[in-house]
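Predict structure. Chain length: 164.
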Amino acid sequence: MAESSPKSRIRILVACLILIAGYAIFLQYYNYNPGFNDATLAGMMKKDAAKIVDIANNEYDVDLDYSPESIKKVDQILGQMHREHLETPFSEDQITKRSILWGSYVGEVVRSNVNCEWRATIGLPLQLNDETYLYPTDWCHQKIVDGGEEDHLWARYLFATTGN
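Prediction complete.
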């Protein structure tokens, strides 16, 4: 068996460190305990989604009703959040927490329209029956940080629910 080059060993080490850091953030946010599993994550996401309904109403004067169309409203709110982030950058911790909170709402809307379940693993995905994974928290992270197109979340929702 041929020896790997120092560059490839460094790449592997860096990839491992990135995975470990991501998992550490996941554990820190959810105050990891041995009882944390798919069911407890689903309960947390449901509670976080309810918090977002209140936040949207109180801070943005927007009513969220868990309808598919409400994702367009979340798109607008996160677009505003992106502009705020450009003016005064949020810390990585703030971005992560906001992404998880808003992603919980988007994920709960997806769950109400597609047969899928939250999975207590890195990235906090929703798993569809066919082993497809959706990452609504990542969708929200990308919208907050990069802005993206106006209908960023809506396009992903449509793809998740219709495949188009």
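Summary: Residues 1-32 form one domain.
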